[in-house]
Amino acid sequence: MLGCVRTATVRQMAQVITAEDADGRSYVRRAMNKLAELGLAETNGKAGRHPIWNLTPAGQKALADGNELPPRPKTGTGAKAVRAGFGPHGVAVTDMILAYGGREHLTDWQVEVNHAIKETGLSFNTDAVLALPTKTSEVRLFELDNGTMSQARLAREVWDYERYAGHRVWEGARGTIGTTYPFWQRHRYTRSKTFPRLHVVLAGKEEHLLDNRLKALADDVKGIAIAVWVNTLPRLQRGEPWYEIGVDDPDRRRQRYPEPPGR
Length: 263
Known about the structure:
By secondary structure, this protein is an alpha+beta fold. Helices cover about 40% and strands about 20% of the residues. The chain has helices at about 1-5, 10-15, 25-35, 55-65, 80-100, 150-165, 185, 205-220, 235, 250-255, and strands at about 40-45, 50-55, 110-115, 120-130, 140-145, 170, 180, 200, 230, 245. Helix 6 packs across helix 8.
C-alpha cells in the first residue's frame, strides 16, 4: 500500500488489509514497528495524534525488487513531504483513494504525477492518477483540496488542466503541410480517445463549508472545456454521487488555444 500511496496511517492500512467489520489496527501497528526495525519503513510526522508511515529507500527498493507493483517512474518515499508539513494533505489523498474504491484496485494508483509542457512552461502535479481504463480514457485524474488554498488558487489549478488539454503540437515532414495533434494524446495518454476526466475532491473543513466551496468552484470554472466532476470527501465516503461542473469539448478547446506554427 505504501508503495502506491506513499503515506498512510495505521487506520488507513488496517482499512485495506483487514475485513470490513474488523479492527486490525493493533496488528498493523505491530507489523509496521517490525518493518521499522528492519529499516524498511519509518514515520516522519503526524496527522493529529496519528503517526504517518512511509517506506524508506530500502523499503521501496525491496518492493521494486519483488516485482510487487507495475513498473512506474521513480518517485520519492513521501518522507520529504511529511517533514515539510504536507503530511495531512497526503493522508487526505489516501482517504480519497480509499473512498473511491482503492481497496479493490490499489496497485492501479499513482500519486504526485507530474504533467508538464516544456514549450509553454506549464507544470503541475496531479495528486492521484488511477489507471483503470474506460471506453474512452486510459486513466482518471484526481485533485484533492484539503482546505488550505484560496478559492482563486483552486480554480486556477483546475483551469491548468484545460490549458494542458488545449495545447497542440505540429507534426509532419519538413516541407509538407503536416497537421496538429493534442499534446496529451500524442505524448502522454496515447490510448485515450478523450482527455481524462478530472475529479476534484474537497476536504479539510466542516461539511457545510465544503458545500459552499463546491458551489463557488462550479461558478469559477463555468464554461471550462474539459470534463470535471467534483465531490466532498464526506459525501464520497458515504457513496453519494459526483457533481458534473465541466464537459469535455475538444472543439471549444481548439478555438481557445492557438495552433502551433508549421516548420
